[in-house]
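Standup notes, structure subgroup. Blocker cleared on the pyridoxal-5'-phosphate input:
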Amino acid sequence: MDGDTTLEGDFGFGRSFTPHMATARFHAGRGWTATEVVAFAELSLSPAAMVFHYGQAIFEGLKAYRQPDGTVALFRPEDHARRFDRSAQRLAMPVLAPGAFTAACEAVVRADGDFVPWQPGNSLYLRPMLIATEAGLGVRAAGEYLFVVMASPVGSYLASGARSVVVWASVDSSRAAPGGTGSAKCAGNYAAGLTAQQLAAAHGCEETLWLDPIEHRWIEELSGMNVVFVQRGPGTPRLVAPPVGATVLDGVTRRSLLNLAGGLGYDTVERPVALDELLGANAFTEAVACGTAAGVVSIGAVHSAAGEVVIGDGRRGPVATRLGAALAAVQEGRAEDPTGWRVPVTDVAQPRHHACPGLGRPSGRTP
Ligand SMILES: *Cc1c(COP(=O)(O)O)cnc(C)c1O
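Run returned:
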C-alpha cells in the first residue's frame, strides 16, 4: 500500500489492495478449478474476451470485521453468496461450487489478516467478481470464466466521512425495468447509471435517487444503496421500506436493519413510497440510505425537477444513528448475534506489524 494512504485520511474507497487475491477458473465441460490464493496482480486477457464485448460481469461487496478478541468475522457471507449465484444465473454465467464463495473470502482474509483494521468503523472490504474470459466475438454465453476475490481496507465510503447525502431524483433515465437486470449485481447496471450520476452532480447532489421506470413516481433505491424512510407517528417510529424485487436490489444491509428494528422499538412496513409523498410536508422525519460499502447514511435532502425538500433538519437523524450503531455493534462483535450473521474466520495470522498506516491497532492493546 502507498505510504501516504491512511484510513483516516483522504484515501479513495477501494484504491489500495492487500497483497493476495483468490482465483478460480471455469471451463465448460471441465467445471471449476480449485480456488487458489495468489499474489495480487494484473490480469492478462485477450482483447476478444467476451466480458469486454457482451458484458458478462457480476460482483459482490462484503466486509470482514475485527472482533474485540482480535479475531476476524465476515458479515453474512452466505447471503452474499446466494445473491452472487442469482446474479450469475441472470447473466447466464455458471454458479460457483457450493461453499466456494465464502471459502474464497475466508482464504483472502486468512492470507492478509494483518490488513483487517482495528479501529471501529473500519473494515476489510472484499470484492468478489466473476467475468467471462473466453475469447470470441460470437454473441452467446461464454464457456470460460474467471472468479476473483480481492480485498481493500476501508474506512468511510463517503469521501468527506459525512453521514448525510443530498440526492437527485431521476425522472429522465431508469436504472432497471421489469424483466431486466435490476435484481442482479451486474457491472452493466452501474455503467448505465453513470450519466444520471453526472446529472445529479450537476445539480449539486451526491447520489441518484432512482424512481420506477414506468410512472417515474415510486421510489426505488440509490445506485448502490437501498432506502428506508422513518415515520414518526403518535407511537413508536416506523420504518417504511420500499419493497425489493425485479427493479430493486435485495440488499443485505436493508434486510439487517429491518431485522434489528424491532429490538430498537421500531415498527416496520414494506410498501411503495411515491416521490410526491416524500416531497410532501413532513411525511417522513428521516430518510436512510444503506449498503455494505457506506453503511447507514442519512439522506439530508431530495432535489428533483418538481422541487426540493430538506428531510428532518438535513443532518444525520436519530433513528439512522441508532440503526447504524446497532448494526455496527453486531458486525464488530460488541453485541449478541442471535441470528448467526457473523462468520468467524479461523486461523487468521495474528498481526506482526502495522501492515500500513491507518490500520490503527492501538498500541498496548492485546488481542
Ligand atoms: C450492492 C447494492 C445495494 C446494497 O446491498 P448490500 O447487500 O446492502 O450491500 C443496494 N442497491 C444496489 C443497486 C446495489 O448494487
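Discussed briefly. Residues 1-10 have pLDDT under 50 and may be disordered.
Next: hand off to the docking folks.
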